[in-house]
Amino acid sequence: MAVPIPVSSLRKQQGIEKMTNIQQALKIAQASFVNSKTPVLDAELLLAHILNCERTSLHTWPEKEVAMVELQKYQQICAQRANGVPIAYLLGNQAFWKFNLQVTPDVLIPRPETELIVEVALKILSNHSMATVVDLGTGSGAIALALAYEHPNWKIIATDNSLKALKIAKANAKNLKINSIQWVKSHWLSELKDQCFDLIISNPPYIAPEDPHLVAL
Fold it and tell me: I want to staple 169 with a disulfide (CB 3.0 to 4.6 A). Which of 43, 141, 152, 210 is the partner?
């Protein structure tokens, strides 16, 4: 695990005494991301988040000074990133399909390859103007929301055994103004007995083949 480099220490090393500009702040952050494959991108995303601006603004005004209160917040969030906290959790959102989703440690971060599941589902039901679909272990609601976004008339049920996850999923639905999904607290299909569906979808957490939680059938 990487040990975060204090901003104050790096400022002293680089001769930055009182004020730090955008370019310097980015350089300091990048130096602390020794285990990241994308240190430049990480530094830019986090600083844009702290400054509430677009990444392009960082390059447009690299000499703009960063206020001390913002620099301290940047130091704190960069320390978390240096210790392995995912960018999406630090930013509080993740791009998925055609929108951004709120994410917290209570849900898994939707991955780009998860969009393939949405594409396959849409292809399988391409001839269905009406369909009933259930998304098991919905997490942030990513798959269910993408399907509801593309087909508002479909009946979509999304389940999760975590109330915290369902709270995030419902918040995402509200932000996207999608109200056609039925959210159900359920351990997989346990609360949906004797119901029929056109398609059952699930994208559970990835686990290693040797994980002891796997049980041979």
Answer: 141
